[in-house]
Amino acid sequence: MLRGAEIVLRCLRAEGVELAFGYPGGAIMPLYDALPDSGIRHVLTRHEQGAVFAAEGYARATGKVGVAIATSGPGATNLVTGIADAKMDSVPLLCITGQVRSAMIGSDAFQETDVFGLTLALTKWSRLVRSIEELPAVIAEAFHWARSGRPGPVVIDIPTDVLKAKMDFAGPVKFQPHPKPADIHGVTTFTETLIPLLENAKRPVALLGAGVKLAGAVEDLRELLAYLQIPTFATVHGLGAAPQDAAYYLGMVGMHGTRAANLALHETDLLLVFGARLDDRVTGDPSRFAPHARIAHFEIDPSQLDRVRACDLPVIGDLAETIPAFDSAVRRISLPDWTQWRGVACGADRAEPDARGLASPTIRFLDELFRHLPEDSVIVADVGQHQMWAAQRYRSSSPRGFVTSGGLGAMGFALPAAIGVQLAKPNATVVCVSGDGGFQINIQELATVKRLRLPVKMVIIDNKYLGMVRQWQELFYARNYSETDLSDNPDFVEVARAYRIYGDHLDEDAMREAPVNKAVSAMLQRFLGSPEPELLVFDCHPEANVYPMVPAGAALSEMIFEQE
Amino acid sequence: MQAFHIQYRNTQGTLMRILNAASRRGLDMPYVQATPMDHEHGVTLLLDVSPKQTGQLCRDWHAIVDVTKVRAGVPFTVATHAAHEWTTPHLPASVRVASNTAARTASA
To answer: Which residue in chain B has the smallest CA separation from A125?
Structure first.
């Protein structure tokens, strides 16, 4: 006879779970009671949001299902932002929440919330467990849906009496999904339509999103791109999918994308989209997005089609199947000569200008920092100006090397997510790049970093503002800096010291001139090579802005740039 | 008004997920009827939607784990029984590319 809690943990182990993040409390106590003997390592964060973001970081770094555990009521509600984040960014995530006793459900008992109802709109699948007998099947099904198709978050809400109950346990079970008509597609005949479009295209381009990585199709895609040699760019989650040094690769596209990428996207007559949602941060004004183009959209999730901009040819299916099928078809034809188009789109006159203006020291700092990183390093960016600067300057070809909250844009993501990434990749250099606003949202996770002695390198780009909001206030709200001033920030180095973590400041004056001073360069190398967690606060100009920028509602061709 | 007929396995929350696809878009639901159908359940909704929303809704419903069939009928006042069944995810109304379109591009 095993308790429900023990059955849960055995089923998790059977699904390959080695690590879980969480925060205990009343209703989930039976699970924590069984945890020490389970073979699952548990990481205690200092807030449930820290736990769910750490689980996301682990999942994003590995492709495995991240597991977060919380108690009922406030513990569960604190998971909600992470669940929404995982939904938007297609992250496989399992959240296990304790619930009040079955008999008390619906009575507004102490620490009772309707977690099932609360998360319905944010999850791919969820269950409120009603009996101990359901547990093995529920857990198997949860993992299936978290991993399959377009990955996403699932929630299992377990009343405390179910965790305490006992039954004979025959072992974990396998889940067999009911087939859906949509699942029975295989590789269809899309190539018959797409090949003529490609043969007749004069200005084809490729746009890469996270779906390429999630499908495990990066190598297939790189082979295809190497053959096509068409101008290629990526969303923030698609960074690292293409070889960054390829002559045809133009960097990030969208609101803060490169000039070359946005112009090529505006001018193309055939847009091949691989695993990207085409959200509004990528398209700008949808009515003027790729206005001359036919769009072929490779996507596993049909619900993502036609949300913002209509596509002409949906290619629905697993990219690990559709990309090779397209590649095979492409190699049977004679490709048009796109040399002239490539010369225009990838020409030197469209290259990014050298860093200039108030942001130039920060950009130079990030360039210098990233220059010293080993290839398998992971940048974990928070949300805001620093996120876009980091994405713009990211130069690695590591597919899972840039982790950020892209769709939801959840400030406070980076520090706990970096914990998850570092645990997933203990030998990798993990750099958490945050702003002074976002860092304070989950600053308590410094305690987790210290407790585990994780060698996470934490960088705060400190402009003493909620910088991206301030930038919009400057540009679109007549400089009315309403409630974005953070000039009374704490001294982050002193805060780190309180957690017994070493910290240091670097003023932007050290980055005014290129090449970077050798002493500063050596300091950054030492920082990155330290076996301990460290914090580096980079003091950035308060009014530095991120450019290029496509204003909201504008076309991608209507970028604005830093003025001299 | 457009009628929609969605067939689903009556698992926890599936009906709520179906309704949520409409409510998250701020759509009024003047008519909702959920009933057992054969071995499954079905829900009929009447919604005032644009053609683009019709496609989006049908694809959203199809993405719900336990939804098995999605049908959109002709406008309710005409004939709900003349519903068209989609056995695969409903493609965007904008899908116009066919071999003849490709050929037209070729000649352009």
So the answer is: B65
Residues A136 and A220 in one domain: no
Do A438 and A299 fall into the same domain? no
Measured between CA atoms, the residue of chain B closest to residue A199 is B106
Same domain for A336 and A440, yes or no, is no
Nearest to A51 by CA among A25, A69, A72: A69
Number of domains into which chain B is organized: 1
Which ipTM score applies to this complex? 0.91
Residues spanned by the domain of B45: 2-107
Q: Which residues of A460-493 are buried (b: 16+ CB within 10 A; e: fewer)?
A: bbbbbbbbbbbbbbbeeeeeeeeebebeebeebb
- What DSSP assignment string belongs to A295-349? EEEEES-GGGTTSSS--SEEEES-HHHHHHHHHHHHTTSPPP--HHHHHHHT-GG
Asked whether residue A555 is assigned to any structural domain, the reply reads no
Shortest Cα distance, chain A CAs vs residue B11, angstroms: 9
Domain boundary among A145, A178, A211: A178
> Is A159 inside a domain boundary?
yes
Q: Please state the domain count of chain A.
A: 3
The rounded average pLDDT for each run of 10 residues, N- to C-terminus, in chain A (564 residues) is 98 98 98 97 98 98 97 98 98 98 96 97 98 98 96 98 98 88 60 94 98 96 98 97 95 96 97 94 92 94 84 92 95 96 94 82 96 95 98 93 97 98 98 98 98 98 97 96 97 98 96 90 96 97 95 92 73
Is residue A545, in this structure, part of any structural domain at all?
no
Residue A246's domain comprises 183-350
Q: Is A294–B99 a contact, with Cβ atoms under 8 angstroms apart?
A: no
Out of A126, A306, A314, whose CB is closest to B13? A126
Which H or E run includes A251? strand A249-252
User: B95 and A120: CB-CB below 8 Å?
Assistant: no
CATH of the domain at B25: 3.30.70.260
Facing residue for A306 by CB, picked from B9, B55, B62: B55
Closest CA to A452 of A475, A420, A404: A420
Q: State the Cα angle at B90 between A185 and A121, rounded to 5°.
A: 100
Taking a C-beta distance cutoff of 8 angstroms, is the pair A40, A83 a contact?
no
Given a cut of 60, is residue B14 above it in pLDDT?
A: yes
Contacts of B97 in chain A (CB under 8 A): 193, 197, 294, 312-313
Contact B20 A182 (CB under 8 A): no
- Interchain proximity A196–B93, CB inside 8 Å: no
- Claim to verify: residue A215 and residue A136 sit in the same structural domain: no
CATH value at residue A508: 3.40.50.970
Q: Does some domain include residue A550? A: no
Would you list which residues of chain B are within 8 Å, Cβ to Cβ, of chain A? 9, 12-13, 16-17, 20, 24, 52, 55-56, 59-60, 62-63, 65-66, 68, 87-99, 101-103, 105-106, 108
Provide the CATH number for the domain around residue A327. 3.40.50.1220
The reply to whether residue B94 touches residue A192, judged by beta carbons under 8 angstroms, is no
